[in-house]
Every structure is written in structure tokens, then in C-alpha cells.
Request: fold
Amino acid sequence: MTRKDHPLLEVSELVTAYGKIEALKGVNLSVEQGSITCLLGPNGAGKTTLMMTTAGILKPRGGSIRFAGTEIAGRAPHAIVAQGVALVPENRLVFPAMTVIDNLQAGAYQRRDRVETGADLERMFARFPRLKERSAQLAGTLSGGEQQMLAVARALMSRPKLLLMDEPSLGLAPLVVEEIFRIIADLHMDGATIFLVEQNAHMALKVAQHFYLMEQGKVTFSGTPGAMAEDEVIRRAYLGSAKA
Amino acid sequence: MFFDLIQNTLDGLAMGSSYALLAVGFTLIFGVLRRVNLSYGPAIMFGGYCATWVHLNFQAGLLALAIITIAGAVLAGAYVERLCFAPHRQGSAIAAMVASFALWMQFEEAVTLVMPSHVYDFPAMYDGPPFEFGSLTLRMEALVMLACAVAISYGLHRVLSGSRFGLAVRAVIDSPVAAQLAGIDVPRVLLQVFLLASSIGGLAGYLIVSTHTQITPMLGMWSTLKGLLAMMIGGLGSLPGAVAGGLVLGVLEAHSQWFLGPQSRDLLAFLLLFGLLAVRPYGLWRASSAEAEA
Ligand SMILES: Nc1ncnc2c1ncn2[C@@H]1O[C@H](COP(=O)(O)OP(=O)(O)OP(=O)(O)O)[C@@H](O)[C@H]1O
Ligand SMILES: [Mg+2]
Reply:
């Protein structure tokens, strides 16, 4: 377990580049155990890049990512999943040609405890009844909202200690967005630690205990919702300060 | 005439079974890597020459020769994967393809260096007379080929649909990034699939050379061509399609050989590949790339 004075996730001076272009230019932030922490920022700020680097899909050029006291920067994605980090990626990335149930089984790929995995599958179906109805259907034929539920459930099947979510509300109808946020709040109630990227700042700031604002590859602002001038944060999250 | 047609179809199905095996291996590699491995056939040819060399220098039983062919193909396949495909996984498909062409040349050079007379006899699986059913005959090799194709296709289907490894393979085929996020060690799965495909190809290679009772360096190009063609007929990336494509190709060849003479067989294969690419690039049964991706 983590010592109380260490955050669960600690990112420092993280640099990730695409070719010569640095998308992350020394990012510093941390996520406390048991919290919902939200990352806001305009398009192209580098939010997805940060998520993909944390999950090991992108290799950082410099800096460190400590998870539960262990350095995970630059390690292979499957090793990072084994540490207890799961990402619900931008645009969901379900396995479209596989059934719902196989998608969930794939999420539990590293687990050897068959009985417990089966029980978790039932728990997912209880939490997401729509997935149960469609368990034999190919994931590619699900609606956008259902695919998002599936992507969340797949990530949970690995029993992560930290759940990373990259814009789970992207492209979804308002009612579905509310459902997604209800699920996020539920997971948090059950003790999950969640690091959430959102463009929907209004909704995100309602559930988060802490937020960061990222602009052009750097964290430019951080705080606690309610304490600050929220309108200003939201405006910058959408537009970026450069265009103000 | 009627019996000839049936006889040709039978012979075609037998030869087509080995094409089906070649295509299944090709399709597995194409499925997980989205890359065409031109060295697929040459690796099989390498395995065949390993067995030929052992046959010339030692007393080895048929089973031993089959195992050596497969082992040689797997070894060569691992070499291809490490050199061509592992380094270019994120990079360009062209680089990987050119690299696999370079290894093709390497295999041919290596083989002809050690065994310079090019054409060698290879022991037949079975010397006895063919089985007769009325006026139809069926050779032992044909039966073995059919049995192998059925067994491998069925076994592969079971593994892919019902095992942990199969789940990982399907996940990698479907979305490599999502597979990584799900905690699957993708590079390891790719290597395993490559070795599995090479062993299936090696088995096909053994069945083919022991049927022809000789081996030439052309076996490399020939296997790549037949595997590729059967895969294209069946629709890129579909395993049942690959089996069907192999059988269709075998039957077509058998009939054309009978009607147009023995020279026509490989010519037909080339023409078919060309025509197919022009008219239905995603296989006989698929209309578009959208379906092929699905
Ligand atoms: N594959 C890539 N190749 C080159 N540049 C990229 C690539 N992906 C992202 N970038 C660039 O990196 C920067 C950060 O992109 P990123 O996707 O991380 O932003 P984001 O904050 O997630 O934006 P959005 O809110 O639109 O999802 C952008 O300038 C983008 O153009
Ligand atoms: Mg993004």
C-alpha cells in the first residue's frame, strides 16, 4: 500500500514528443488515493498524450511517473496494467469484432482467478444492465453510449487501483452523459481512484475533488472546485488562455 | 468424362488442402500484423531443405523428416519475425515487406550454398498403390493432406474461440492498441502467432514435397504465391475464407491441368492472382475493404 503522504500517482517533469513536436513540455501533477481528479484543457493541450504516456502506449522523452511509489514511465503497457492502472481511452476503442462478453474477458486477461473474474463479470452486468442484454452482440454494433459503458466495464475487469478516463462523455447525448457521470460518482463511492480528462468542465467539476488545467503541454492552473472563480477556469478550459 | 471430373475434383481438393494450410498460416500472420510476409514460403522451403539434408546424411524416418521440416520452418519464421517484423511494427509496411523480400533471398542463398544441386529427391510418404473406389483412385498422400487440413482448421478454430491465447490473438487482430490497454503483451502474442503460422506452413511444406517427391528452391516462391492467392480468394484475414480459398484454388488448378495440360497449372495461378487483384481485391466473397476490416 501507498504511504499516506504519497499520492497514488505522481507525474513530474514529464515530456512526450511526436517527432520533434513536444506535446508534453514538463508536466507536473498528482492524483490522491481515493479521489476523483480532473484534467481540463482545450483541444490539443496534450491531455490524451498524458493519458497514453501514463498507460505506456506512448514512451516519454523525459521525466517520471510514479504509481504507488513505483516508477512506471516508459514501461510496457501490459506491465502497467499489472501494476493496477487501467485506461478508458479516448473514442472508447472497444474490440468491435468481438462480443461484449469477450471484450470484458479481454479486460480480465491478466487475471488467473477464474471464479472471482466470473463474479466480477456478474457485477459488471448488474452495474450495466444494457451490457447484459447485449452480452452476445458484437461490440461494434453497440450504440456510442453502450460502447462507452463497455469500455469502462472492460477497464474495471482488471480491478485497477487507478482508473484513467479520457473524455468518457465525448459525442454522447446529454442523458447518456449524465448516466456516465452517475457511474463515475458510484465508482468513487465504492472507493475507486479516478483520473478523469474532460471537456465537459461543468459536469467534471461537480464530481471532482481536485482539478488541473492543462494548456499547450503544461499544467497552468490547479485547484479545488468551488474555491476558485469557476467561470474563469471553464472559459480557459474551453478556449485556452492564449486566445482570451 | 464424368468420372474424370470427379477424379479431378478429388485430386484438386487434396492439393487444395495443402494450399488451405499455407493460406491459414499466411492469414494468421496477416491478421495480427497487417503485413504481407513474403518470406513465408522461403521459410518453409528452408525447413524442407533441412529435412532433405538430414535425409541425405542420416537414416531418418518419415515422422522425423516431417518434424524437421516443421522445426526448420519455425526457426526460419522466428528469424523473419525478429528481423523484419518486430523492428517495423510501428513503422512502415513497405519497410517490413522489403525486409522480408531480402530474407527470402537470404534463404535461397543459404540453401543453395549448402546444397548446390538445387533439385533433390524427397522420400514419399507412402510407396504402396493408391486406394481404389470403383473407377476413382485416391492416393495415401491425398488422404493425409485432407485429414491434416480438417484437423488443423478445426483445432485452430477451437483454440481461437475457446482459449486464453485465442482471446489474445483475436484482440490483437481486432485492435492492437486496445489489446495493449487490456493488459495483453502484444509483441509476445505476435511472436507466438508467427511461430504457430510457421509450423502450420511447415506441415503444409512437408506434405507438398513428399507428394512431389522432390524439392527445389522454387518451393519458396511457390508457397508464398499459393498461400497469398488462396488468402486473397478467401478474403483477406478470414480463416474460414483461407480454407475455402485453398480448396477452390486446388480444384480450379486440377481442372485446368486436365483441360489445358500440365503447363497451365501455375500459369493459371498467376493469372488468377492478377485478375483477382484487378476485379475483387478483397476476395471473392467480400465486396469492400470496410467488410474486410470488420
Ligand atoms: N500522432 C500524433 N502525431 C503528431 N502529433 C500529434 C499526434 N497526436 C497528437 N499530436 C499533437 O499533440 C498535441 C496534443 O494532442 P492531444 O491529443 O494530447 O491533445 P488533447 O488535449 O487530448 O486534445 P483533445 O481535447 O482534442 O482530445 C496536439 O498539438 C496534437 O496535434
Ligand atoms: Mg484528447
Q: What stands out?
A: The first helix of chain A runs from residue 47 to 54. Residues A 47-48, 90, 167 surround magnesium ion (ligand 2) (CB under 6 Å). The first strand of chain A starts at residue 9 and ends at 18.
